[in-house]
Amino acid sequence: MVIRVHVACDDAQVRHLIAGDLGAADDIEVVGESAENALGAAAVELLAPDVVVLWAAPGADPAEHVRRYREGARRPAVVAFCTGSDQAAGFRAAGADAVVLDRDAAGTLRTAVKSVYRQRTAAASDAFGA
Length: 130
What we know:
By secondary structure, the chain is of the alpha/beta class. Helices cover 47% and strands 22% of the residues. The protein contains five helices and five strands. Helix 3 links the parallel strand 3 and strand 4. Helix 3 runs parallel beside helix 4. The longest helix is centred in the C-terminal third of the chain and has 20 residues.
């Protein structure tokens, strides 16, 4: 099974680096990239990814970013990629499924995406008695 991922990040350079790294994995398909805003949320509704990887600038409100992707009908898993421990704590409190600090990113982001996907898939299987 291939994990469908959307990358949401306001910095185009960072967004392309994240998408390139994730897309290099055989079992991850980057189905979309967007700025981290209402257009990103609309893209998620249209593209139906399994996981959204989002990067928010320091000082941004983590709850607002997580809420944006949880409001729609799709409700993908959210992996937050951030720069500091305060921001990481905010994303955890806001309900992100996983948080990766950029200083730990080498391979960790892919691992987080795969982990939250497996958790979601297992939970869905349990819910349907599979």
